[in-house]
């Protein structure tokens, strides 16, 4: 097979699990509130209360969005006493988010 031709090349399709994870990740990045939360967490870890206060959101809204992001393994938490501190759990997605933000700011 030569470069640049598809002769004899067997196209490999994405498996269902990969497709689902990719589409859910784009869904996560398609929501302004989740983008704001991820961007804040990219700066430093924060508790639910910190996030709610800094972004002027209800604590219940933040908790709901963090649960969504945690299920996708985009954020993780550590416990200190009774407080949970959240931080990014996937540098690949955070890099993509930063690239998209850079793209948006340079137009």
From TrEMBL:
<feature type="domain" description="HTH arsR-type">
    <location>
        <begin position="14"/>
        <end position="107"/>
    </location>
</feature>
<dbReference type="GO" id="GO:0003700">
    <property type="term" value="F:DNA-binding transcription factor activity"/>
</dbReference>
<dbReference type="Pfam" id="PF01022">
    <property type="entry name" value="HTH_5"/>
</dbReference>
<dbReference type="GO" id="GO:0003677">
    <property type="term" value="F:DNA binding"/>
</dbReference>
<dbReference type="InterPro" id="IPR036390">
    <property type="entry name" value="WH_DNA-bd_sf"/>
</dbReference>
<dbReference type="InterPro" id="IPR036388">
    <property type="entry name" value="WH-like_DNA-bd_sf"/>
</dbReference>
<keyword id="KW-0238">DNA-binding</keyword>
<dbReference type="InterPro" id="IPR011991">
    <property type="entry name" value="ArsR-like_HTH"/>
</dbReference>
<protein>
    <submittedName>
        <fullName>Winged helix-turn-helix transcriptional regulator</fullName>
    </submittedName>
</protein>
<keyword id="KW-0805">Transcription regulation</keyword>
<keyword id="KW-0804">Transcription</keyword>
<dbReference type="InterPro" id="IPR001845">
    <property type="entry name" value="HTH_ArsR_DNA-bd_dom"/>
</dbReference>
<dbReference type="InterPro" id="IPR051011">
    <property type="entry name" value="Metal_resp_trans_reg"/>
</dbReference>
